[in-house]
Design goal:
Strand 5 (284-287) and strand 6 (291-301) form a beta hairpin. The radius of gyration is 22 Å and the shape is globular. By secondary structure, it is an alpha+beta fold. It is built from 16 helices and 7 strands. It folds into 3 domains: 2-132, no CATH class; 138-208 and 306-337, no CATH class; 214-301, Chitinase A, domain 3.
């Protein structure tokens, strides 16, 4: 199964097909997979131990997943999974990892995790989709293929003589050929950026995307009951209790996130934007499944071109505009997700 999934053709650009194997190799080379693989490494022992989770917590997690993906019926949920070559068992494995006991977490090397895991390719593929990380990484990969395919940039990837081969022992998807392929894509991408995206252009775009690139560190705690949510709000607002402490004491569902506004669920953007750092918001009924949520804004970080994450996102937005016509003419998404 692992080998079959790696051969999955994801898209065609300029008549040439690109597979999951190449996508994963590039994503590992650029360290885009590090957060996902680290999570899988830590939770592997907890999943294999077969620990029991309260059915109500599992159902709540399933409802959360369906809400975030706008899946109203069971049939829509199964169709969403099939379109991504996933099964319902993959969803439950993801939930087990999400709800796993931190006391059972490990610190495995990628190589050790790969040996323990029955199907590492499937685990990474599933986790990317369930955590909504796939699309952004996929779009970045397509953008690099787009640049490398242009006549003025196309060249044999093995012309990169000065790229030192990294230690591949602890890599999951990188072999020597895929390393050179990935290094080639990054080399051409940086070359294109240097030639076509000056700092002044990024600064101009920052005025357009300032709100999208505002970064917010926030915490949330959710309850099914409104009174419990109101009590939690009062404990935070007036007694100074932390949301983490509340979650341990009350059993509320706690989450913490540090994200750009453009990456935050749409229903949360307006209340988070209107709040000040250090402010606790009145309970919100975001969805019937989630119940009532109390939000606490820890920090807001204004975007600046000197910040590498902000600069990379601005470069990406500029390049997408520059290559829009080229991509429309050459990109073809293959049927795996239709």
């Amino acid at each position: 199964m692992m080998t079959e999934l790696l051969k999955l053709p994801l898209f065609r650009f300029g008549g040439k097909e690109y597979t999951l194997d190449q996508f994963f190799a590039w994503a590992e080379y650029t360290e885009a997979l590090i957060p996902v693989i680290e999570h899988l490494q830590k939770t592997e022992e907890a999943v294999q131990s077969g620990f029991e989770i309260d059915q109500e917590r599992i159902q709540q997690a399933v409802n959360e997943f369906r809400y975030h993906n706008n899946l109203i019926t069971s049939a829509e949920t199964h169709r969403w999974l099939r379109q991504r070559n996933l099964e319902i068992d993959d969803l439950y494995t993801h939930i087990y990892r999400k709800l796993s006991d931190p006391r059972k977490h490990l610190r495995l090397t990628p190589a050790a995790w790969k040996k323990r895991c029955l199907d590492p390719v499937r685990e990474v593929w599933a986790e990317l989709h369930f955590t909504a990380k796939f699309q952004r990484i996929f779009d970045d990969f397509v953008l690099r293929i787009s640049i490398a395919s242009r006549p003025e940039y196309y060249r044999n990837m093995y012309e990169l003589k000065d790229v030192m081969l990294t230690d591949l022992e602890n890599m999951i998807f990188l072999n020597q050929d895929n390393f050179h392929f990935s290094a080639f894509l990054e080399h051409v991408y940086r070359e294109y950026v240097e030639e076509n995206v000056p700092r002044s252009l990024c600064e101009a775009k920052l005025r357009t995307y300032r709100i999208d690139l505002l970064k917010i560190l926030y915490e949330s705690i959710s309850f099914k009951d409104l009174n419990a949510a109101k009590e939690a709000y009062c404990c935070v607002r007036y007694d100074g209790e932390s949301l983490q402490s509340l979650a341990k004491r009350t059993g509320g569902v706690y989450e913490s996130e540090y994200a750009f506004i453009e990456d935050i669920p749409e229903l949360l953007r307006a209340p988070l934007l209107s709040a000040k750092a250090g402010e606790c918001l009145d309970p919100l009924r975001i969805t019937p499944q989630r119940g009532y949520t109390v939000l606490y804004v820890t920090r807001k970080t204004e975007p600046h071109v000197n910040n590498i994450q902000v600069r990379e996102r601005l470069e990406r937005k500029v390049i997408e505009e520059l290559l829009a016509d080229w991509n429309d003419q050459n990109f073809e998404l293959l049927p795996w997700n239709r």
